[in-house]
Amino acid sequence: MAAMGESPRSGLSSPEAKLGMRVEDLWDVMEPQLSPTEKLNACFESILVSAFPPSSSNIVEIRSDASLGEAVQILAEHKILSAPVVDVDAPEDANWMDRYVGIVEFAGIVVWILHQSEPPSPRSPLSPASGTALAAATNGLNPELGCLGPESAATTPGNFFEALTSSDLYKNTKVRDISGSFRWAPFLALEKSNSFLAMLLLLSKYKLKSLPVVDLGERKIDNIITQSAVIHMLAECAGLQWFESWGTKKLSELGLPMMTSDRVIKVYEDEPVLQAFKLMRKKRIGGIPVVENGGSRAVGNISLRDVQFLLTAPKIYHDYRSITAKNFLSAVRSYLENHQEVSPILSGMITCKKDNTVKELILLLDSEKIHRIYVVDDDGNLEGVITLRDIISRLVHEPRGYFGDFFDGVLPLPQNSRV
């Protein structure tokens, strides 16, 4: 198990720590009869999302006419899971709904790859190159994978991805072909006047991994708040009274892990690596443990973002007859070590025990820059998994009728909207 570190805070001087002090000031004046959870809800409802520290870098946007390969490189270079897609044909005065096509994410890229790797079947009479097949890679439009052929992913030879990334199909597929939209809007967004509580609920109970904050005046995205950014903010607040009253509780006290060992989705090390990605997409999860054959001990983790290594470094699998989960982990780790690159996949399995505190988990997740941690027993056998969303969901609760019709007051409509 990786060591549980100390808080990375430095004299409460970071923007996140200063934000935590605002919560502390509100916490101190809350009615004493309120429970700690009710106090936190009230504190976060009183702070606007405009106060959330912006990303350390500029907002990463991808042009709708960029190729799939270019999108993969941009996401990988900036170490992000998704990015908004800007419509290159939109007029300069377009409102934000017309300015953006949607979101391109590794989850959609995974589905595109699965379509190319599996031949048509009675359940999937589509040609991999068809427009319908490409459309199925969108996020939110078709979440089911029933059309993706057999339950088990096909075994792929070591040279498959070299051939795929050299093909005209890969070079000619544009981001607009696989970018996902959110029903009648390019994506679900918040405006600056929405509350922290709304943001935290959407990132936890409603399972969104990131939330663009739209500047209606500028007609563009002002900030993107991710689950990881919230966890970093919480790590920077370690030591503050409101955080310690919650963070010093043991996992079991907060009902964690929510997903126990019998419900953990996993892949065995000798299964095709595409089976891992297929399960992630089908179950709508961001990562999956690789378990030793015939046992329950996890030997590694594969996340959605790791699909980049199938497309950016296809030659590293050339000597394998088939790309299994074990071969994938071995090849990627060797590639990263040879290129002296840093990635969570090099850290191996990041684990914890049931008697750890939430604070210890937050500090570890933040320092390792990972999205999930596996709960194991003394022998290393899986007992559950805890995600960033699980932790955020234990910080706040949704008041009855809080969102109303869910979209009302949450999706910022442009003044000239026809919706």
Automatic annotation (TrEMBL):
SMART domains: CBS
Pfam families noted in UniProt: CBS
Top-level taxon: Eukaryota
Every CBS domain range: 54-121, 259-320, 342-403
InterPro entries (UniProt xref): AMPK_gamma/SDS23_families, CBS_dom
Keywords: CBS domain, Repeat
PANTHER family: AMP-ACTIVATED PROTEIN KINASE, GAMMA REGULATORY SUBUNIT, CBS DOMAIN-CONTAINING PROTEIN
Name recorded for this polypeptide: CBS domain-containing protein
Organism: Carya illinoinensis
Organismal lineage: Eukaryota, Viridiplantae, Streptophyta, Embryophyta, Tracheophyta
